[in-house]
Write a sequence for this structure.
């Protein structure tokens, strides 16, 4: 199948994009890398009147390192991060995760902002960026809003994007000198979406010990204080019962699914301890 007919616009600044999104008489969709929207258009799951291509907006393709944070424009691609075309403030976490996303052809075009807005629970960025404590910035008719990544995702394929709003950037905190991280995803083969994701950040300098369980049926499960899960003195400690209890409380009923996610988090913890 092919898409239905639609109009196409490629604004050169954020204000121009927002002006197009403000048209309430038309169904307007935003496109960046088109790695998710493209197939949906061809299958006619989405039938817009107007497609707004934001890849011509320089602000959305730029980045800025300032003090203790790195701000990424929404149109930064996975390959930009993988290839080191911007600073890494995460001790290798961002490039490592980027290199494991789908296939190179996808990474060349797919964007960080597009991935977060598509809000697929099995995608990599929402889990890893939640573990890192990243936030998103949205701009719309009422000005700017800032949200933690995990709160931006409301559920499967649903982001907290109000009418007329656009995700413009993602801000990643700079990790402390002694910080370590781990990331693990369970896939049947390279390039597939994950069945389970575990992400771990241990940053003693900033007093952070955060765990994230992703690739659930909804947004990631963030355990803001994970010290109790991984023990204090024993390097091999991992409280799988506590993880299982947290997953059960979050609504995961299948014991095999709970075990798969628990193992993914355990391996992420092992990765963090091994760095």
């Amino acid at each position: 199948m092919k898409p239905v007919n639609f109009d196409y616009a490629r604004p050169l600044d954020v204000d121009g994009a927002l002006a197009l999104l403000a048209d309430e008489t038309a169904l307007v969709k935003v496109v960046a890398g088109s790695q998710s929207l493209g197939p949906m258009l061809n299958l006619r799951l989405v039938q817009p009147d107007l497609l707004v291509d934001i890849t011509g907006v320089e602000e959305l393709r730029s980045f800025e390192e300032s003090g203790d944070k790195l701000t990424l424009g929404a149109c930064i691609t996975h390959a930009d991060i993988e290839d080191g075309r911007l600073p890494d403030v995460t001790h290798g976490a961002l490039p490592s995760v980027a290199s494991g996303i789908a296939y190179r052809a996808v990474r060349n075009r797919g964007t960080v902002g597009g991935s977060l807005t598509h809000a697929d629970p099995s995608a990599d960025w929402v889990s890893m960026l939640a573990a890192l404590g990243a936030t998103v910035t949205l701009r719309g008719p009422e000005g700017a809003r800032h949200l933690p990544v995990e709160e931006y995702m409301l559920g499967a394929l649903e982001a907290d994007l109000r009418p007329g709003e656009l995700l413009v950037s993602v801000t990643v905190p700079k990790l402390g000198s002694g910080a370590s991280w781990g990331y693990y995803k369970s896939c049947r083969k390279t390039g597939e979406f994950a069945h389970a994701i575990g992400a771990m950040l241990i940053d003693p300098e900033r007093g952070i010990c955060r765990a994230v369980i992703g690739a659930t049926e909804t947004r990631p499960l963030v355990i803001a204080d994970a010290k109790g899960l991984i023990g204090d003195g024993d390097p091999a400690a991992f409280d799988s019962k506590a993880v299982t209890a947290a997953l059960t409380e979050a609504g995961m009923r299948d014991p095999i699914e709970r075990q798969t996610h628990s193992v993914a988090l355990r391996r992420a913890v092992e990765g963090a301890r091994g760095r």
Summary: The chain has three domains: 7-53, 58-173, 180-273. The two ends are 48 Å apart (CA to CA). The mean pLDDT is 95. The longest helix spans residues 255-273.
